[in-house]
Amino acid sequence: MTIIKTYSPEFRRAKEMFKGLSFLKTVPADQLDSFVIAGNILAYENDERIFYQGERAEYWYLVIDGRVDTLREGADGEFRVVQSIKPGQLLAPIVMFMPEPTYPVSSRVVGLTTLCRLKRDQLHALCHAHSEVAVAMLEVAGIALSNRINEVENLSSRNGPQRLSTYLHTLYQEQGAEIRLPLSHRELSAKLGIRPETLSRLFRSLREQKVLEGKRLNWLVLDPKRLECQ
């Protein structure tokens, strides 16, 4: 991890990204500038960890470039990807309000990644000074909870082929016909609750049905309607 100097191009990008976040729209521009200036711009190499599960939660982050995966260690000792966080999105803002200030997940960067790091106390102070920000943070928490509930429902109410098809169709909607899987085969099988050998068989079946073509991480969606209806 490397600290980048203040007033770098990355710093200016961070300021613009923060201004675009809905929960900060009511904060005056000069106060928002001071808020961001108090943070640090950090550059990470591929596969570096930002924080570990159970570590004291002192900071939250904005992803400027690259990607961050959050990981949860299961009872079997395996780490499962919970969420992939992309440029313009926040890492661990809700954790700053938890009664026990420890991270519930670990985090790992994917590729060269740049973050803006801010302190827990900064966010608390901003919420005390601007009640609209506090209300907006509750909305952020509500959306995060809703997303997790939907994921649990997807795992519990659908079979393996349906879970994979839903996941791939979501990537199709985000990336277009040419999709790149953000997770390794092992990570994806753990996320979807499908055994690795079963996942391989499902991909092979989709190729045979001419729904997809490709291999490993890179795929071309040939028939999005059939993928959606699988």
From TrEMBL:
GO terms for cellular component: cytosol. InterPro entries: cNMP-bd_dom, cNMP-bd_dom_sf, Env_Response_Regulators, HTH_CRP, RmlC-like_jellyroll, WH-like_DNA-bd_sf, WH_DNA-bd_sf. PANTHER family: CRP FAMILY TRANSCRIPTIONAL REGULATORY PROTEIN, HTH-TYPE TRANSCRIPTIONAL REGULATOR ARCR. Residues 23-126 form the Cyclic nucleotide-binding domain. SMART domains: cNMP, HTH_CRP. It holds the Pfam family HTH_Crp_2. One of its GO terms (molecular function) is DNA binding. It comes from the Bacteria. It comes from Marinobacterium iners DSM 11526. This is cAMP-binding domain of CRP or a regulatory subunit of cAMP-dependent protein kinases. Keywords: DNA-binding, Kinase, Transcription, Transcription regulation, Transferase. Residues 158-225 form the HTH crp-type domain.
